[in-house]
Design brief:
260 residues, alpha/beta, 3-stranded antiparallel β-sheet, globular
């Protein structure tokens, strides 16, 4: 699939639509597929399980400081942006192709206007390919789906290699995939080729999402006790089920050491 023009106009299929049930507001693109969600009375909570798993990079890196940013490719309902703004002191940079999504987030999903949030409206593939963005986001959370949700709309080896460059010398990328979908093996193959096979997976959740983590930087070798201690810290500080993630990642361990 060739890259879409950076500022092309969205079609009617890209028009954000809303639904609400039991105090949770959902974002759609004129289909039944859920593109994001927010607890109306607790907008900074991560209501969808896969969005919490996208934060699993916290097991390996602290939130960035200074000019480095937490990067989001795909804004969705703004869940991860709101969470990161509330729970960290990091800059948050979201790349969103559709300006209507940003407007919907501001109007209906309580996306706060503040100095630490920057939303750039352009194609995510063009953004990561821009040499000016290399090393800009040591954390990159990738969630790129269209109205049909048939798999990520950006998934080439070249795209994932550009994501790696955006991470810089040391970084972690998390990607939202569908485990039981034709796009899954293709994406895993492409991510592994782009990241020298330094890729691990969290277990698939009931909704079908499966989160991949890819690493750049020096090799990682963490003893089980150390990894689980870090998971306890993340769980206590951020209110995320990090111990569950730590136990799942120990499936990749050999002789009690997680290596990637």
């Amino acid at each position: 699939m060739p890259p879409m023009p950076a500022y092309s106009l969205p079609t009617e299929l890209d028009e954000p639509t809303l639904s609400e049930s039991d105090g949770v507001r959902y974002l759609h693109f004129n289909t039944a597929w859920i593109q994001g969600a927010m607890v109306v009375r607790a907008p900074t909570e991560l209501v969808l399980e896969y969005t919490a798993q996208m934060m699993a990079w916290l097991l390996f890196l602290a939130p960035p400081k200074g000019s480095d940013a937490i990067g989001l490719l795909g804004l969705g309902a703004g869940s991860l942006a709101r969470f990161c703004l509330k729970r960290t002191r990091s800059q948050v940079l979201a790349v969103e192709w559709n300006p209507r999504v940003t407007s919907a987030c501001q109007m209906f999903f309580k996306l706060p206007p503040q100095a630490r949030l920057d939303v750039e409206h352009m194609d995510a593939a063009a953004w990561v390919a821009d040499p000016l963005n290399r090393g800009r986001t040591p954390i990159l959370m990738v969630d790129l789906y269209d109205a049909e949700a048939r798999g990520p709309v950006r998934d080439s080896v070249a795209f994932y290699r550009d994501c790696r460059r955006a991470l810089g010398d040391v970084g972690v990328m998390t990607v939202n995939l569908f485990g039981d979908h034709d796009s899954f093996p293709r994406n895993i193959d492409h991510i592994e080729r782009a990241f020298d096979k330094r890729v691990v997976l969290l277990p698939e959740i009931d909704a079908g999402n499966r989160i991949a983590l890819a690493f750049t930087g020096p090799p990682i070798a963490i003893e089980a006790d150390t990894l689980m201690a870090r998971a306890e810290e993340v769980e206590a500080q951020f209110g995320l089920p990090a111990r569950r993630w730590g136990r799942a990642l120990m499936a990749y361990a050999k002789d009690g050491v997680f290596s990637v």
